[in-house]
Amino acid sequence: MASGPSKEELEMYWKSSRQYFDELAAHYKTADPDYYNKFILPFYTNPFIAASSGKKSGGARAIVLSMAAFAVVLIAGIAVFFISYSESDKTDNRKTEKKIESPGEDVKENTKTSDDDMKDVFPSDDFLLGSKYLAEKDYDKAEEYLKKIKPGDKDYEQAQQLLKSIKYLRKYDPKK
User: Fold this and answer.
1) Nearest CA to 44 among 21, 62, 63, 61?
2) Segment 44-60, tens digit of pLDDT
3) Cα–Cα distance between 132 and 141 in angstroms, integer?
């Protein structure tokens, strides 16, 4: 059986006369520690009871407000992300759209390039250009670029193999 005021009375003292409640707490803390721990201590440790008292010690109010503010900021951030993401998709689609002027063009005609475009060629590009002209069956240009590859280059051995292939293709290809 409780030796002090009931829970309802303690709650009334907590809300209306905090000074009297604190005096009771100090008395029961030393006189009856079990009663203090069971009935009085929860008023000091539970932030929701402190917030309901209307006093400025409301830790629960601060917790609830900070959680609400965090939720608002989080929702706003997600909304901004989705809006900017959808706008970037729209702008990307506009940039990549191209009109096809003549869909029936021959693919080989589009892949051939002029010699003016090939003036500034890096040494490592000679193998690529030689291979390209070989695929287009322009053996003279292919041979020209493949012969530019010097010994010691990483593509030298492959270039030599392609040069041998060009000799064979010239000999047996009925088109050239």
Assistant:
1) 21
2) 887 776 555 555 555 67
3) 9
